[in-house]
Amino acid sequence: MTNSFRTANPAELAAALQQARDNTLILFDCFAAAGLDNPANVPLLSVINPPLWELGHLSWFAEWYILREAESSDPTSALRNSMLTKGDDWFDSNTVPHGQRWHLDLPSSGALKTYCREVHDRVLDKLGRADDDDATLYPYRLALAHEDMHGEAFSTTFQTLRTAPPPALAELAPPAWPQGEVRFPGGTIMLGVAAGEGGGFVFDNERQTHPVQVGAFTIDSTLVTNGQYSEFIADGGYQNPAFWTAGGRTWLMQQECSAPRAWLRDGRRWLCERFDRLTGLPTNEPVRHVSLYEAQAYCVWARRRLPTEAEWEYAALSGHPAWRWGGLWEWTCSAFEPYPGFTPDAYREYSAPWFGTHQVVRGASFATQPRIKSPTYRNFYEPKRNDMFIGFRTCEL
Question: What are the residue ranges of helices labelled H in 161-275?
Fold first, then answer.
């Protein structure tokens, strides 16, 4: 397909939707092998969903926007009923509170897979007869991006629950790029995309085009490494009550997750968790699983700062040969706010509920599908989150 899902034609979308569904089932079957297809065996944590619920939700979402031709996420907007009698009661994330997803009378995994297969087959059949224009292909591109995002969420759930992932995922890691700095002169950058400009899919939080003045700045060419972060810890820069010592091992504990952080110290040696395994800490790899607060604490210690999202995008679009991104998501110092002229799209809850409470995250991770990677893509997380594959780079003060 084309490099981006945003401009994929019907044939490319069909192939991508098939690949996304194959990946979803591979990930789900690994959860099932660990007994986690039963919600009763899954810890109730704010940062994950029961895999069985998530599997059903993915197909329900595609059915809602493509087969049921809903114009929005309003519960009354679908033109026809779900193939599942209680589909809306089970899988509408806007009406089913997070904590209830562990206590629903869901179908068995086999029955849900049958539903998923039927939805998928009907989606591909309808797509095969679709016109090749942005308006017609919008719900297909939305469903594809939605499944790819949930696929990455599945990947981080393996880390959170210390569960063995598929071998191909276990082998992935962010590159250990050479360290350095890049100086940019600054100038005016146009953030956002105007509706209809250039064609293709646009997320609602990326509209509209507006100029932003960026001053001259110096920024790391890549992300802060484990080695650099360990110096920060050794120097006492990390003053946090979540820094624990027990049984001869020092752990950095996640604040909201049951799984330990990706670092621990056993005697004189730093170790890290990679899903279900302990391994020696690769000092040249980017540090991962850090919250915004931890990234900010490092910056204070190092007498640096986090980049703004405009600076990050300026650098990413510069074409500078030393600039590297895409190994981990990256914190910025910009709060997640609407661009001027914002209006919500059909998936009304994608952006609007999170303005003002979340932080802009830029880039991509090693678990992100290449087709949704973009230097202009605005991701966003709560500042306390550290369960994602996320790191940071710094700027000169």
Answer: 167-170, 226-234
250 and 337 both lie in a single domain: no
Q: Looking at the structure, tell me whether residues 275 and 366 fall in a common domain.
A: no
Q: How many domains does the chain have?
A: 3
The CB density around residue 201, as the number of other CB atoms within 10 Å, is: 21
Residue 296, in any domain of the structure: yes
Residue-wise pLDDT for 95-134, tens only, equals 999 999 999 999 999 999 999 999 999 999 999 999 999 9
Asked if residue 115 and residue 202 are part of one domain, the reply reads: no
User: Is-contact 287 229, C-beta < 8 A?
Assistant: yes
State the CB neighbour count (10 A cutoff) for residue 10: 17
- The kind and range of the H/E element at 51 are helix 51-62
Select from 161, 169, 203 the least CA-distant residue to 376: 203
- Is 39 inside a domain boundary? yes
Cα–Cα dist 62/101, whole Å: 19
DSSP assignment string, 122-136: HHHHHHTT--SSHHH
Is residue 369 reached through a cis peptide bond, with omega within 30 degrees of 0 on the bond before it? Answer: no
Structural domain including 29 reads: 5-170
Residue range 276-295, pLDDT digits in tens: 998 888 999 999 999 999 99
Q: Are 288 and 391 in contact (CB under 8 A)?
A: yes
CATH of the domain at 199: 3.90.1580.10
Q: What is the pTM of this model?
A: 0.93
Least Cα distance to 358 among 376, 372, 338, 374 occurs for 338
The CB density around residue 162, as the number of other CB atoms within 10 Å, is: 17
Nearest 5°: phi and psi at 395? Answer: -120, 155
Residue 175 domain-assigned (yes or no): no
Q: Do residues 255 and 188 both lie within one domain?
A: no
Residues 123 and 189 in one domain: no
For the chain, what is the total number of helices (H) and then of strands (E)? 9, 15
CA distances from 63 to 7, 78, 131, 140, 265 (A): 21, 10, 19, 10, 48
Q: Which of 45, 6, 307, 320 is nearest to 144 (CA)?
A: 6
